[in-house]
């Protein structure tokens, strides 16, 4: 039974990410299908990803509460149906070629999700924390006995490093097809789509290997993060300012992604567990810490697509706009490397 459940959960994840990445992999085709100008389409594309990420800037805070109250099966079924409903609505809007309808549906659907979450959560908040806290729920959006100030500063470094990885890795994928067709594969979306799949394919293939290797390594784990971010920086500089094949840089990007994905969540667990061990009061903060990471990651997924759209449509022509975009992603990676270096310094101070 357990292998079957694991398989079905993987299928659910596959479907969710397949739906999420569909606008990115059909970037150029959708622009032509909808008959939009390039500048208008870039902002529409950004808004599609923004609408997806908005609910996830607050819902992860409450996921544990919902699961505790209603059980994982019911909660999983509800959100799967919600995902299916949203995807059907988007398909209807695209079928009639009304992009405004798509955005309106997504906006309304996002608002309804907030209403549903409120209906679930407000009675729970009232029961456990009183009406005074429940009525403030929409304002403070975080009704738990602990607050964010209890989280150690090391956690915020890890969290910042984590979200800096989101832009150069995940958000880059949103416009990768357009970039590849513009620079490497003119009028060939199939070859561009194949190249676009390389980083995720490499990353997925290496996750088991990187997990095993890094978990048994005697070296500082954070130093691997430093080199990973530096590799991502080099990849984006390479893509933006050379005309050589993107395949090798994409393999490097996937490898760096596997390292980041292997280490980020364990780092959160490490710094929180260590802080809890030193604390005078025994208060569990790990769930809250993971919730904060996921919510902030989705805040970045709201902001960066709009920044990308602005960069691509801000008066630059031809390849210059892609150079500026790759420089933007490289800059985020440099900041990520600085955060990872700070983590390395903290690790060395603990050893000393």
TrEMBL record:
Signal peptide bounds: 1-19
Membrane topology label: Multi-pass membrane protein
Key word Membrane present: yes
Chain segments annotated as transmembrane: 42-62, 74-95, 153-170, 222-241, 247-268, 289-312, 324-344
Entry keywords, A to Z: Lysosome, Membrane, Signal, Transmembrane, Transmembrane helix, Transport
Location relative to the cell: Lysosome membrane
Family: Belongs to the major facilitator superfamily.
PANTHER family per the UniProt record, alphabetical: MAJOR FACILITATOR SUPERFAMILY DOMAIN-CONTAINING PROTEIN 1
Protein name: MFS general substrate transporter
């Amino acid at each position: 039974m357990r292998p079957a459940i694991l398989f079905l959960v993987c299928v659910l994840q596959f479907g969710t990410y397949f739906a999420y990445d569909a606008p990115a992999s059909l970037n150029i085709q959708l622009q032509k299908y909808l008959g939009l100008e390039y500048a208008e389409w870039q902002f529409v594309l950004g808004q599609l990803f923004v609408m997806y990420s908005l609910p996830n800037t607050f819902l992860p805070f409450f996921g544990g509460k919902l699961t505790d109250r209603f059980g994982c099966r019911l909660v999983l079924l509800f959100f799967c149906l919600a995902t299916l409903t949203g995807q059907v609505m988007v398909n209807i809007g695209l079928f009639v070629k009304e992009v405004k309808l798509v955005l309106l549906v997504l906006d309304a659907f996002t608002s309804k999700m907030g209403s549903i979450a409120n209906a679930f959560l407000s009675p729970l908040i009232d029961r456990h924390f009183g009406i005074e806290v429940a009525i403030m729920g929409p304002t403070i959006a975080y009704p738990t006995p602990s607050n964010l100030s209890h989280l150690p500063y090391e956690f915020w470094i890890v969290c910042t490093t984590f979200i800096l990885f989101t832009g150069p890795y995940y958000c880059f994928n949103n416009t990768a097809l357009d970039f590849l067709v513009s620079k490497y594969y003119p009028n060939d979306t199939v070859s561009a789509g194949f190249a676009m799949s390389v980083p995720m394919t490499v990353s997925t293939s290496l996750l088991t290997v990187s997990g095993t290797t890094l978990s048994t390594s005697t070296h500082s784990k954070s130093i691997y993060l430093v080199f990973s971010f530096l590799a991502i920086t080099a990849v984006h500089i390479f893509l933006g300012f050379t005309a050589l094949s993107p395949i090798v840089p994409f393999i490097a990007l996937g490898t760096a992604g596997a390292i980041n994905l292997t280490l980020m969540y364990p780092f959160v667990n490490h710094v929180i567990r260590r802080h809890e061990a030193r604390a005078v009061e025994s208060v569990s903060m790990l769930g809250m810490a993971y919730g904060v990471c996921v919510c902030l990651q989705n805040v970045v997924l709201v902001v960066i697509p709009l920044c990308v759209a602005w960069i691509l449509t801000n008066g630059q022509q031809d390849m210059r706009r892609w150079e500026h975009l790759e420089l933007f992603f490289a800059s985020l990676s440099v900041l990520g490397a600085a955060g990872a270096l700070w983590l390395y310094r903290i690790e060395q101070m603990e050893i000393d």
